[in-house]
Specification:
Layout lengths: L5 E3 L33 E2 L14 H5 L6 H12 L11 E11 L4 E6 L4 H5 L3 E9 L2 E14 L6 E5 L5 H6 L4 E5 L10 E2 L8 E4 L5 E10 L4 E7 L2 H5 L14 E5 L7 E3 L4 E4 L5 H4 L7 H28 L14 H13 L2 H10 L7 H12 L3 E5 H4 L11 H12 L3 E6 L5 H20 L9 E5 L4 H10 L10 E5 L2 E3 L1 E2 L11 E3 L2 E2 L1 E3 L5 H7 L2 H7 L4 E6 L9 H9 L4 E6 L10 E5 H9 L6 E6 L3 E5 L2 E5 L6 E6 L13 E7 L1
Length: 661
């Protein structure tokens, strides 16, 4: 995301900001547009909130403690920044935290919260570790002996002097790693840390109306996002503590820190002038819940998790995977809570089905369809590529019936779209999303009495928050905000390599971390069901759902595709592009809501395969945890392809749509 056009300042003292999922270069800002001669600044790279949030509205809740002012300050410190000042410490800043022990000789694994990891973790010298002991936060000095980047992980393996065994390493797990503020790298004259934005007044440039005050700056991978508390600076920064448990707290809005939205930032007057797109301030205004309401919600969530863990224990013991539960009886509270969350998030119905079906050899259904569709399928429809690239009826007279039926489905909001993104670079992903969504948005705007379609995006974990921010920045591309879901792709545990089903064991990175990998596009159906999206689609009266993957030839919501499915009364229509080598990039299918309900109710309709892979993992040896680094494939990744559900469809209810050049 681009930085605002200009910043003026009377101070060059840098203040740090939050670390990004994907650290970015410093932003250099163009010439100032404001009223006084500027000094130009660029933002130092940001980081995300300390914990990944399911959506931005949770960020404020994460930063507020529930046991008093001291705890609130500690929460704020941990969330606010690395390379920034920490309240209660003598000029120290947090640069990472000890996430686990590595090996048996005292090495530890550190997760960085700095954009200078080599300086912090590969250079010997003094470091300080902060942890809670006897109910108080304590800081101890350690000498960093050596460090190196962890191959394949976004972490660093570090040795501290005096930490020489696995037990000693475990004692410092969870500690924050601190350095002296004076050792912080100096920024260039035109660079600042984004914490300088906190506390600034936000004003609408066209009207002079005060929106509120910047409370925090977050980054979830798609650029800086300002959390602005609505109202005056006094009410935003110093909220009243009276009746805090019984009255809702201040509202806040999320404003992307982009040059077209925040063109002017005056560091001297502590004001920024914004030009928000129509509806931005209204779309993401969220009333904050009181502490009492949050406690009630937390209590309900804990009860739900307890029920899931109780059910999971029974299933794991039945599957002879009881070793997963050992971590719940050892380690500190954070480690045990983390393991409980991981166990509770596993879809055991899908996992059991995957384990039982991996021994079966499944042919490539999609490839067979490409080879045999013309000769063996009676429901075959051939559409020229040029026709598909146009949403206009003109020139589509050969398919006027299908086109009109599809248009009616779209206009009456009887269709929904599920888009699966891949793990490509965020910039490529943004460009691809923009092309797809802009194209569909323009088509829908041209339709009379067009409705708002439900839209679901399934993406890798590292892209979820970035996509959410991207949708907010672009006013959701015309989709109704209450009908948009962004889901993280489902993961399943990785199991050991064995031909015997009972010998396949779930692998662990540590006693408190399960080794998991994406379960493939076939897990979409379980995601729709578990997130109650299928239930919502049924309640909306949806008749057909397009399930597709992002590609350069994908067209979202084309009337011909929905019309072909409707006119032929099919359960499932799949679009294939005929090529000389019989290959197909991605997938694109239209499923009737009735057939989608059947698939989601019966996970056995999705076929899994086991892919041999090589994974480092942890094991117990002589009562201690050790790290195993295999030289050959030692595990199976359980993966399902969405096209495997074609086998569940009756031949006379399946339509093959071939796109010809």
């Amino acid at each position: 995301m681009a930085s605002p056009a200009s910043i003026s300042s009377s101070t060059s003292a840098p203040v740090s900001l939050s670390l990004p999922l994907h650290p970015s270069p410093y932003h250099r800002l163009p010439t100032l547009l404001s009223r006084r001669p500027p000094r130009r600044f660029a933002l130092a790279p940001p980081r995300p909130a300390a914990a990944l949030l399911s959506n931005p509205s949770h960020a404020q809740q994460e930063n507020e403690g529930e046991d008093g002012e001291d705890e609130e300050e500690e929460e704020e410190d941990s969330e606010e920044e690395y390379e920034g000042e920490l309240a209660g410490e003598d000029d120290m800043v947090e640069v990472g935290y000890v996430s686990g022990a590595h090996g048996v000789r005292g090495d530890v694994l550190i997760s960085p919260r700095t954009d200078f990891p080599e300086l912090r973790f590969a250079t010997s010298g003094k470091r300080w570790l902060r942890a809670r002991a006897a109910g108080k936060m304590q800081v101890r000095e350690f000498e960093l002996v050596r460090g190196k980047a962890h191959t394949g992980k976004k972490g660093w393996i570090v040795r501290f002097d005096g930490v020489d065994s696995l037990d000693e390493a475990r004692q410092i797990v969870g500690s924050a790693v601190l350095v002296k503020t004076e050792d912080r790298p100096e920024m260039e004259e035109n660079e600042i840390y984004s914490l300088d934005l906190v506390g600034m007044s936000v004003i609408v440039k066209d009207t002079g109306k005060l929106v509120g005050t910047v409370a925090q700056v977050f980054n979830f991978g798609g650029g800086d996002l300002l959390q602005v508390m609505v109202g005056s600076a006094e009410s935003a920064v110093q909220p009243s503590s009276e009746n805090l448990d019984s009255t809702p707290s201040c509202q806040h809005v999320w404003i992307p820190f982009a040059k077209d939205i925040v063109p002017d930032v005056d560091m001297e007057s502590r004001e920024m002038w914004i030009t928000p797109p129509k509806g931005l301030l209204e779309i993401n205004t969220r009333p904050e819940k009181s502490k009492k309401e949050r406690r009630a919600m937390d209590w309900k969530e804990k009860k739900k998790l307890q029920r899931r863990i109780t059910a999971a224990k029974k299933v794991l013991n039945e599957m002879e995977q009881g070793h997963i539960l050992e971590g719940l009886a050892s380690g500190d509270k954070l480690e045990k809570d983390s393991l409980a969350e991981q166990i509770g998030s596993i879809d055991f119905q899908l996992f059991k089905h995957a384990m039982n079906s991996v021994s079966k050899q499944i042919d490539s259904t999609l490839k067979n369809l490409v080879l045999n569709s013309s000769s063996s399928r009676k429901n075959v429809m051939k559409i020229p590529y040029e026709t598909l690239m146009s949403h206009e009826e003109k020139g589509n007279y050969s398919f006027s019936n299908e086109f009109n039926k599809g248009r009616e489905i779209l206009q009456t909001s009887k269709a929904a779209i599920v888009l699966v993104t891949n793990g490509s670079d965020s910039d490529i992903m943004d460009a691809e999303l923009q092309r797809l969504l802009n194209s569909f948005s323009e088509f829908m705007k041209g339709e009379e009495n067009h409705g708002s379609l439900p839209f679901v995006i399934v993406s890798p974990a590292g892209q979820v928050d970035s996509i959410k921010n991207y949708l907010v920045e672009n006013d959701y591309f015309g989709f109704g905000t209450q009908k948009v879901w962004v889901l993280e792709e489902m993961k399943l545990p990785v199991v050991s390599l064995s031909s015997e089903m009972k010998s396949k064991k779930i692998l662990l990175k540590s006693p408190w971390e399960i080794l998991q990998r994406p379960a493939g596009t076939g897990s979409i159906f379980s995601s729709l069901s578990s997130n109650k999206i299928l239930e919502a689609l049924n309640a909306m009266g949806i008749e057909y759902v397009q399930i597709c993957s992002a590609s350069d030839r994908l067209v979202l919501g084309h009337p011909l595709l929905f019309g072909a499915a409707s006119s032929r009364s099919t359960d499932l229509s799949i679009k294939l592009r005929k090529t000389s080598d019989n290959t197909e990039d991605g997938f694109d299918m239209i499923i009737s809501i009735d057939h989608l309900n059947k698939i989601c109710r019966d996970v056995s309709k999705v076929s899994f395969s086991a892919h041999p892979e090589q994974h480092e993992h942890g094991e117990r040896a002589d009562g201690q945890s050790i790290t195993v680094q295999p030289e050959l494939a030692n595990s199976h990744r359980l993966r399902a392809d969405v096209t495997s559900v074609l086998d569940s469809c009756s031949p006379d209810k399946l339509c093959v749509i071939e796109i010809v050049e």
